[in-house]
Structures are given as structure tokens and as C-alpha cells.
Amino acid sequence: MAASIAYRRIYEEASSQDGQRILVDRVWPRGMRKEDAHLDEWLRDVAPSTGLRRWYGHDPDRFAEFRRRYLAELRDAEHREAAGHLRELAAHDRLTLLTATKDPEHSQAAVLAEWLARKGER
Fold first, then answer.
1. Phi/psi of residue 95, each to 5°?
2. pLDDT in tens, the chain (122 residues)
3. pTM above 0.85?
């Protein structure tokens, strides 16, 4: 299991404590140059589907339902390989999951961090 799984905005300064920095958004963050992102990987296939992302619209009132639907998506064929890869990374390294959303507490990064922590407890 990873020493830690954190999540935060990609626009924040990179830290030596980040471990592997994984972008978990489907689209590239606005205004962010690739060389400034300091990414180890962009894992867009683990991000919510476009339909789910648009339905959610980062509305905190919809977060519980977004979380339920997103966790279901992580089990589907489209997401399964990327989700497995992320679990493998979390089993061996410290991870920081990055997102461009203004409210990372109500984002797929938060859902993924919780999901990965639960998987590591088994």
C-alpha cells in the first residue's frame, strides 16, 4: 500500500512530498503548460465519462450522486484498465492525484483517493 494518497489542484506548486503526480482529469487544465505541470502521468481514462462530468457540473449538491455513479464507472470496461493501473501505482508509491477543479474536495480526485485507500485496506 502507498505511504499516502493525496489530491489537490494542479495549479498548486509541486512539492518534493508529492511522490508520483498523476493528472486524473479527462481534459487538459486550462492555462497550464505541460512543462509546468511536473506530471509523472496523465491518466485521462480513469476520469469520469464526459456525460457524467457534464451532468455533475461541479455542483456540490450533486456530489453524493456523482460519487455513486463515478464509483460504478470505475468498474466498467472503459475505466477498468486505467483504474487497475492507478491501483498498482498506489500499491507501490506515494501518489498525488491532480485536478483542475476549483473545489478538489468535491472532485473525482477526492473520490479516487478514498477509493484507493479502501482498496489498500483489503
1. -125, 145
2. 445 899 999 999 999 999 999 999 999 999 999 999 999 999 999 999 999 999 999 999 999 999 999 999 999 998 999 999 999 999 988 999 999 999 999 999 999 999 999 875 54
3. yes
